[in-house]
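User: For documentation purposes, I need each entry recorded in a consistent format: the amino acid sequence on its own, followed directly by the corresponding C-alpha cells. There are two entries in this batch. Please keep commentary to a minimum and don't merge the entries.

Assistant: Recorded as requested. Entry 1:
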Amino acid sequence: MIRLEKIALSYGEQQVLRDCSLCVAAGERVALMGPSGCGKTSLLNAVAGVLHLPGVTVGGTVSYVFQESALFPWLTAAENVNVVLGDSADTLPQAKDWLAQAGLEECTDKYPRQLSGGQKRRVAILRALAYGGDVLLLDEPFQGLDEAAQQRLAALIGQVWAGRTLLLATHDVREAELLDCRVLTYSDGKFV
C-alpha cells in the first residue's frame, strides 16, 4: 500500500505538485502520466525513500527500476542480477535463469558497456523482479525496447508481480495498458 497525503513539490520557484494526495491499494497497479517535469519521478523517489517528502507512507519492501538502468559497471549482466539474490556462486544459476526469461542468455557474461541500451534496460528490470518485495516502482521501464521486448517483459512482470503493488511513471499510455494499470493523469499540480 502507498499513501501520499498533501504532497507539495517545487523545482526552484516553480511549484509542480500542490496538495497532491493519492492512494494505491495493496495489489493495485497505477500509472502516473504527465509531461516531463511534473513530478512523476520525484514521487517514485519519495516512495522509494530516495527523496524525503513529508506525507509519504509505504507498506512493505520496495523494488525500483530507475529511469536510468543504474547497473554496476564492474559486474556482468548475470552478476548484476545475482547481487540481489545473495551474490554467491550458489545463486548465480538463478540469475542466469532470470536473464533467459527475457531472452538475454547471450548476455550473461557481458559487462554493461558491452550491452545495448535495451539490453541494459531488461537487466535492470530483471534485477528488480529478482529482488522481489511488496511494491514495484517502474520509471519509464520500456524506453529503448522494441514492441516484442516490451510485450515479453510486460508478461513477465504480470506473472512475477501478480497480486503485488505496482506504481509506474510514464509518458506512454501503451506502457500502462501493457501492465494493466489504472491511469492517473497530471492536472494542475495533482494526479487525478
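Entry 2:
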Amino acid sequence: MTSKLKLLVLCGRNKKRSRTAEFIFKNDPRLEIRSAGISPSSVRKVSENDKNWAELVLVMEKNQKNKVKEMFSHLELPQIDVLDIPDEYEFMDEELITMLKSSINTYL
C-alpha cells in the first residue's frame, strides 16, 4: 500500500477556506490532511510541528506563500503551492467545495 500524502492547507484565519478543505477531505483514504491559519488571530495557527509533518503545503493566496516562507525562514520547507482561491466564501460554500476538490485532486 502506498503511503498517504501529508497535506497541510493554509488560509488567513482557518475559519473558512482551509477548514472547508480539511472537512471535505478528512476521510479521503489517499491523504492525511490538516488545516491552519497564518494570522495570529487564527482559530488554529500554523505551527512548526505542522510544517515538519507536511509533505505538501497548499495556500489560498500568493501573499500567504510569502508569509509562510517568512514565518519559517529558519527551516527547510516542503513544497508550497498556491490555489488562488480568494477570501470570498463562507465555510462549506458549494462553489468553494467545488474549487477545492478540483484543485486538491490534481495533487492526488
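Summary note for entry 2:
The first helix runs from residue 17 to 25.
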